[in-house]
Structures are given as C-alpha cells and as structure tokens.
Specification:
Blueprint lengths: L1 E6 L2 E6 L5 H12 L6 E10 L4 E9 L4 E6 L2 E6 L10 H10 L5 E4 L6 H10 L3 E6 L2 H13 L6 E5 L2 H10 L4 E6 L9 H6 L1 E13 L4 H14 L4 E13 L2 E10 L2
Parallel strand pairs: 2-3, 7-8, 7-10, 8-9, 10-11
Antiparallel strand pairs: 1-2, 3-4, 5-6, 11-13, 12-13
Length: 259
C-alpha cells in the first residue's frame, strides 16, 4: 500500500516498510503515466525538526527536488526536502483568505514559502501582509513566489524566529487586524507573540493539535494563557482541519481579541 502527495511536477510516495524495490518502481511508472508528473520521489523519513523537513529518495523521472505547484490561482516553487509544504491545506488556505478583508493589515507566522500569505494577498487584497518564516531556504523561495504571483506590493517576507521578529514589530508599534498562525505541532503555543501585535478586535486564526477528547482542554489552555498576559480573547469557532496521525487532528481555532 502506498500513499502519495502531489506537488505539481513531483509525486512524493510513502511506502510500507514491507514494500519491495520492484513494487516501488512499478508505482513510480504508474504515476509517471500522468503527464503532469515529471518526478517520483520516495519519502524515507517523517516530518521532523523545527523546520518540519523531510528526507526523500529519487525513484524515477527527472532528477529534481524543486516542485512547481499551483493552487487557488497561485504558483509556488520550493525544494520539497528543505521547505515544508502541505498540498492538503489548499482548501484551508482558501477558507482563511476569505476571512480577511480588503485594506486590512495582516501577519502570517510560520509562513514557509508563503502559501497562506500569497493566497490571502490574491483573494482578500489586504493593505499589507508581513510573512514571517524561520527557514532561510523557505524565505528565498517565498520571495521568489511573492514576485512570481505579483503580490510583492502587498507581501513583505521577514526571515527569523517569531520570538525575535515580533518584539521588533511591537517596538515599531505595529498592530495587525488579522493574525494567521499555521504553527507547527510544538509545545509552545506562540499566543503571547500573536497578542503582542494584536489590538482590540484583532482576529487570530490559530492552529492547534490534539485528539478529540483533549480538544476542550486545548481551548481552555488558550483562554487561560491569554489571561496570564492580561488579555481577554473570545473563541469564535473550533473546526477540524485535517488529521496528523490516527486520532490526532489539526484544529483551526478562530479567535477575537476583546481587549
């Protein structure tokens, strides 16, 4: 049994441990019958580290790890090994873009190669978007993608840790109308950083990870954390936004800052 993700010209296949080389090559040949797929890679390790990178092995087709992928009317270029990208979040990015409003100021944390930022810029036409990403390689592609999608007048890419970037923005008295947090599955919520650049009425789209039975606890923790920072938030919606493992879900938590 093999599952795969399709990133434009590249198919990344995850095989079972029992799969033989002949099975892998047969699957690769089958995928290459789709003329849009030029390269087939095998995923050899799960997503790991702060930058959420993966390891792959070349199977068939053109020898490249540079994907060119289209979604929501936007084009994204990236190295599939050095830049985290989930094509399964395409509809999620569209839904979030529809929540933003024309003329607003937006910040996207953990922005990767800028898919949330660019889809937002294209669809919502905000005044500006600050796109913050730790990985240097991701930022290189993000800057290319911003230009390629003709939104460089709206999106500014900032490379660095949000814990270092946000205090600098706060010093400049930057406050945002809309905060998007497609955060990795880490212990730190980074809610403090989001609240530091939020004003009364700011909407935050937060992504959390938990099993169904711990969802309420996750929400309660966010409310308590905001109180610790002397801020009041209102949880407007909690929506399932995909599975990350058996019985483990990604949740989109929509928040309004009330003070």
């Amino acid at each position: 049994m093999a599952n795969y993700d399709l990133l434009g010209n590249i198919a990344i296949v995850k095989f079972s441990k029992e799969a033989k080389k002949s099975e892998k090559l047969n699957k690769a040949k089958e995928l290459l019958e789709n003329k849009s797929i030029k390269t087939v890679l095998e995923k050899t390790d799960k997503v790991s580290g702060r930058l959420r990178t993966i390891k792959t092995k070349y199977l068939l087709g053109e020898k490249t790890k540079i994907a060119e992928y289209r979604e929501n009317g936007c084009l994204f270029k990236l190295n599939v090994e050095t830049c985290y990208f989930s094509p399964r979040l395409a509809n999620e990015r569209l839904e979030v873009a529809k929540m933003a409003k024309k003329g607003e100021s937006v910040i996207v944390m953990f922005a990767g190669v800028a898919p949330f930022s660019i889809v937002l810029a294209k669809i919502a036409k905000p005044l500006k978007i600050i796109s913050v990403e730790l990985g240097r390689e991701c930022c290189k592609y993000a800057e290319e993608n911003v230009v390629a999608n003709k939104v460089d007048n709206i999106v500014q890419v900032l490379q660095g840790d949000v814990k270092r970037i946000i205090p600098k923005l706060e010093k400049q008295k930057e406050k945002f109308d809309f905060v998007v947090m497609p955060r990795p599955n880490l212990k730190d919520s980074f809610l403090k950083q989001a609240l530091e650049v939020s004003k009364k009425g700011t909407r935050i789209v937060y992504y959390g990870f938990s099993s169904e039975d711990k969802k309420e606890k996750m929400v309660e923790n966010l409310l308590n954390e905001a109180k610790d920072f002397k801020r009041k938030i209102k949880i407007v919606k909690v929506l399932e936004a995909g599975d990350i493992a058996p019985y483990e879900h990604r949740y989109r938590i929509e928040i309004i800052v009330e003070n």
